Amino acid sequence: MKIRKAVIVAAGRGTRFLPITRSQPKEMLPLVNKPLIQYSVEEAVNSGIEQIFMITAMGKRAIEDYFDRSFELEYVLEQKRETKLLQEMRQLSNLVDICYIRQKEQLGLGHAILATKDIIGEEPFAILLPDDIIDSKVPALGQLIEVYEQHKTNVLAVERISRQDMMKYGIIEPKKVSESVYQVLSLVEKPEPTEAPSDLGVVGRYILTPQIFDAIEVIPSGKNQEIQLTDALQLLLKQQTVYAYEFEGVRYDTGTPLGWLKTTVAFALKNPDIGAELREYLRQLL
Ligand code: UTP
User: Fold this and answer.
1) I need a labelling partner for 77 at 20 to 30 A (CA). Which of 29, 70, 204, 281 fits?
2) What backbone torsions phi and psi does residue 169 show, to the nearest 5 degrees?
3) Is residue 19 located within the same domain as residue 131?
4) Are residues 192 and 115 in the same domain?
């Protein structure tokens, strides 16, 4: 079955960005001139996704407004004969069909995903965590979809994790299937480096079968009293084959102020309009 639907999970509180996240969703922070969330939406669209279900929460209205049509803005741009900009703004609101679902209480990533159970129905689907921005020639989600199409089973995105970062990730016990493709034998959440079964950590892109919803429904709350997706994946592993794919591309974690800043610098340096000047500025600064 074709992967048509994607869930973008954007309901988290963003406590690591406080105080700015008191009134501003972290997903709307800019990465050069586009908000973070737009990168995930574009990745999904460029991977062939037809419908996006965006999980938001209280205080996240700015995301909905951003992808909505603004007749007032279009009118002003028309009057000013800003044709190119007008076209760009229209394109943005026509990117893809986005349906918004509010998570009323932030009870964890698994809980947020469970809210899409009925609308996803009986088909496999994609999940994107917008904190993870992946810069790649072929969209990372598209790469995962290709693996799904070959094996018709769950696929998790993984990358090599350094020893000092292992305690931040779910680490897989892999069995190599083919180049960059592994069967996941087990999944250990945030292990001590000495206890990690490999250096392959799960990052924010998944293709899952709807059986994940049954798993989420039966797992108890885990760490921080939250319903954790990792716990549900561990249960899913016992029932279905789960693969992992080491995607091609560079992943940036924008979930912390430092990570966001590093990503901003990396993207700005590559930007043809401002890159050269920024490089010069940084050189002077150092
Ligand atoms: P994080 O663990 O990064 O949490 O969530 P967070 O709330 O976004 O940020 P901090 O830790 O408070 O700074 C991982 C992903 O799960 C989503 C987040 O939006 C993010 O994409 N999430 C998390 C939800 O949608 N709902 C939740 O209840 C928790």
Assistant:
1) 29
2) -130, 165
3) yes
4) yes
CATH number at residue 99: 3.90.550.10
Residue whose Cα lies nearest atom 25 of ligand 1: it is: 11
Is the distance from the beta carbon of residue 131 to the nearest atom of ligand 1 less than 6 Å?
yes
Report CA(12)–ligand 1 centroid distance (Å). Answer: 3
Helical axes 83-93 vs 71-79, angle rounded to 10° = 160
Q: Residue 277's domain spans which residues?
A: 257-286
Q: Is the CB of 14 under 6 A from ligand 1?
A: yes
116 with 193, same domain: the answer is yes
Measured N-to-C along each axis, helices 36-46 and 140-151 cross at an angle, to the nearest 10 degrees, of 40
Question: Is the confidence at residue 223, as pLDDT, over 80?
Answer: no
| Entry pTM | 0.95
What is the tens place of the pLDDT at every residue in 186-209? 999 899 999 999 999 999 999 999
Q: What is the CA(216)–ligand 1 centre distance, in A?
A: 16
Please tell me the distance from the alpha carbon of residue 36 to that of residue 42, in angstroms, as a whole number.
11
Token reading at 248: 């091609």
Residues 124 and 262 in one domain: no
